[in-house]
Amino acid sequence: MAAYKDAVQARNEAAKALQSARKIILDSFKNALDKANSDFATARSAAKSASDKQIANAARKAAIATASAIRDAALSQLPDLGPEPTKPAKK
């Protein structure tokens, strides 16, 4: 039973670490999106022609695509927790 409790505690600690890593990745993604939108708003307000607006929109879409690719790659590198420990059978 002690081994089971140790395994459960280890898995819970690993789950907390995994959740913390996911939060860092997703916060970084949100910051990248905020920056892309801010840069877009600045470029759009300074745009003088339709082509300038198109360029600003294309840059925003590219920044979002890059941020999404980085997020997806980082999330795919996170380890899997695996199955939960099985409780020992009662004797």
Can you describe this structure?
With 91 residues, the protein is mostly helical. It has helices at 2-46, 50-76. Helix 1 (2-46) packs antiparallel against helix 2 (50-76). The longest helix has 45 residues, at 2-46. The radius of gyration is 22 Å and the shape is rod-shaped. The model has no long low-confidence stretch (mean pLDDT 94).
Order of helices and strands: HH
Low-confidence stretches: none
Strand content: under 5%
- Tally of alpha and pi helices: 2
Q: What are the defining features of this structure?
A:
2 helices, single chain, mainly alpha, 91 residues
State the gist of this model.
79% of the residues lie in helices and 0% in strands.
Lay out the secondary structure.
Elements: H1 2-46, H2 50-76
Helix pairs in contact: 1-2
